[in-house]
Structure formats: C-alpha cells, structure tokens
Write a structure and sequence with these properties.
361 residues; alpha/beta; 9-stranded mixed sheet; 12 helices; 30% helix; binds succinic acid
C-alpha cells in the first residue's frame, strides 16, 4: 500500500521489494544465514538519517509492492511492479524521482526489464545491499542514501530512465551485471561507462552516457495482455517463455528440444567465446528456428561482443540460419529483450537484430 504524507506530488517515491537490504541476521556481527526481505521499507528508511535533508517536508512517499529474496523473482512479480510504476508515472501525482530497493541476485534483470517497459520520463534507480540491514557493516543505508541523491540530481538535470545505483556509482540497465558474489562493490558494467558517480558529495551525471540503449522501447506495450497470453505448462510464466541453453563441454543438445516441449517460443544460447557451439548444438538450434522458434546467440563470457556471422563456413552463419547475435547483451538480458519482442508480436529476426544492436557502448 502506498504511504505518503504528501499534499503535493511526492518529490521522491521509494518502493520496497525485499532483498538483503531488508534482511535480518541472528546477530549484528553476522552477514550470513539471514532472512532476506524481512523488514518493510518504512523500517529500512529509519536507518538512513540524512534522507529528510534531501526531500522537502512531507514529500517522501513509500510503497511496499512485495517483499521477497530476489532469487524468487518471476515474470509475475515484474508485471506487478511495472504496473505500479506505470500507474505512478502516468498519474497527476508523478513523483520527481523513484528509488526501488531490490535483492542483488536478480537486480540486473529487473532493472533491464523495467528500462524497456517504463516511459523514460523520470529517473528510476534500483539499489540493494550485500550485507543485511542488521549487520554492523551494513552497506544498505549508504547505497539507499546515494540512490536517493543520484535520483533527485538526475531529475534536476532532466535525465529519465531506469538505472542501477550501487557502491557510489550509477550503472546502465542494459550493461550492468553482478560481478562478485560477496564483495560490497558487487556490480559492474559489461560494456560502456558508468553514467554517474560521486565527486566528494556531489552526484555527477553524464547525460550523453545516460541516453544510450533501449530505454522505454516497450513503454506502451500492454503488459496485462502479455500476462494473459501464457499457455499450458508455462502457466506460471507471465511473459512469453524464452529459455537459456548453456553451452559447456559435453553440453546436451537435447536440451533444445526439451525447452521447446516446455513451450519456449525463443531460445538464447549462452555460448562459448563469441557465441560458439559444436555442430550438434547448432543443428538442434537450426531445427528449432525452422519450427518458428527465435534463436539468439549470446556468450557465457562476462564481457565482450557477439557479432553476426563469425563462423568460417557461410552455411553455419547467422544469415544462413536466421539466428540473432546478442551483440553486447549477455544471455540473461538477451532473454528479456526477446521475451518483450515476442510479447510485441515481433517475429522477424532481422528487425529484432536491429534492436539488439542499439544496446552498445
Ligand atoms: C537477494 O537477492 O534477495 C539476496 C541477495 C542480496 O540481496 O544480496
């Protein structure tokens, strides 16, 4: 439920979704064995004393949309969150800026999804923490405070769109990934430069860098409709089902047929190197493509670019097989973009390829 003491539109809206930033461990010295998503957003704010100085009296609003450890995130949660955000952004009461607290484990995926489906009219910054709220060394209060000041500074600079604020930097939603499972500087960009950072206490945005990518590309797509289109065994999914096929030594190409049997309308290969795969995997994916399933070649490597037609034999290339190359996007981000392309009834691989190419440094 929204909570606001605002008589005029909120200057800042903070939305809670759970995660370690809302986590409670058995003791203050412990950073493990905690319950993520235990604290409501109002209680998290109590640990950020400087916040009242950032936001004019009575112009801070909060809303707890759900409270989960983010490994439990699903398409249904995304649609619920996007629905609330679209409602806030389209009404007369649109806040100047929005901050979302989120678990770090799937934060990069939620950020990219929201960047595609929300209008880029206001700054929306996701943040989280690597240590629970109860820890002596908690990083959540600092990250939340930074996200709020970055968000308000973005609005002042006329910058809108979805970004991730973590460890004193703001990162692009299409490029951000969790680079470390334990450290507090847990996030980096797969490509391009951070779009904002702190110079001593001053948030410095680079508007040109913040303008890149596919922000708002599917802002008018009817998300309720996509929820209704899930079928059969994929009933628990709320967006068109797209699976990731991991390539590794001795990877079983039968996985392609299995994912198809589960209703996948698109497949993303997390390939070796520049999205490479052995011949049996290529044959299985080519067969899926011939049956109408869209196929994206991405890479399992944390950084780098997957270009088109990198195979020696033209008959193995993307042109011949009608595959899409993921470009700078990793497999997880490629999966989300392909889901939304399918939801928007895009079936032409070349048109989808053009969208992938817009995510670049
Ligand atoms: C989660 O993603 O909810 C747990 C891990 C974290 O937030 O760091």
């Amino acid at each position: 439920m929204p909570s606001s003491s605002a008589s005029s539109p909120p200057s800042l809206l903070i939305i809670g979704t759970g995660g370690t930033i809302a986590g409670v461990a058995p003791s203050a010295g412990s950073t493990a064995g905690y319950q993520a998503g235990a604290l409501p957003i109002g209680q998290i704010l109590d640990s950020v004393p400087g916040l009242s100085a950032l936001v004019p009296e009575g112009r801070l609003a909060t809303e707890q949309v759900f409270s989960i450890p983010s490994e439990q995130m699903s398409g249904a949660h995304w649609l619920q969150l996007a629905g609330r955000l679209r409602a806030w952004l389209s009404g007369d009461e649109a806040p100047d800026a929005i901050v979302i607290t989120h678990g770090t484990d799937t934060l990069e995926e939620t950020a990219f999804f929201l960047s595609l489906v929300l209008p880029a009219t206001r700054p929306v910054l996701l943040t989280g923490a690597m240590r629970p709220a109860s820890a002596l060394s908690a990083d959540g209060p600092g990250n939340l405070y930074d996200a709020c000041r970055f968000a308000l500074a973005a609005r002042q600079a006329g910058i809108g769109g979805v970004f991730v604020s973590f460890g004193g930097r703001v990162l692009r939603a299409d490029a951000v990934y969790k680079q470390h499972a334990n450290r507090t500087d847990a996030f980096a960009q797969r490509f391009g430069q951070p779009v904002a950072w702190l110079e001593v206490d001053r948030p410095c945005w680079q508007p040109a860098l913040a303008a890149g990518g596919l922000q708002g590309q599917f802002a008018t797509l009817a998300l309720a409709h996509t929820a209704a289109s899930a079928e059969g065994d994929a009933a628990s999914m709320t967006l068109p089902p797209v699976g990731i096929v991991p390539q590794h030594v001795d990877a079983d190409p039968a996985m392609v047929a299995w994912l198809r049997s589960r209703g996948c309308q698109g497949l993303v290969l997390a390939g070796t190197g520049v999205g490479t795969m052995p011949a049996p995997m290529r044959a299985a994916l080519a067969q899926a493509r011939q049956a109408g399933c869209l196929v994206v070649r991405a890479s399992r490597v944390p950084e780098g670019y997957v270009g088109r037609n990198t195979e020696a034999r033209p008959e193995d290339g993307d042109d011949a097989l009608d595959f899409i190359a993921s470009g700078w996007l990793d497999a997880r981000k490629a999966r989300i973009l392909l889901q939304l392309c399918l939801a928007a009834k895009m079936g032409n691989a070349r048109e989808i390829q053009a969208l992938f190419e817009r995510c670049s440094p």
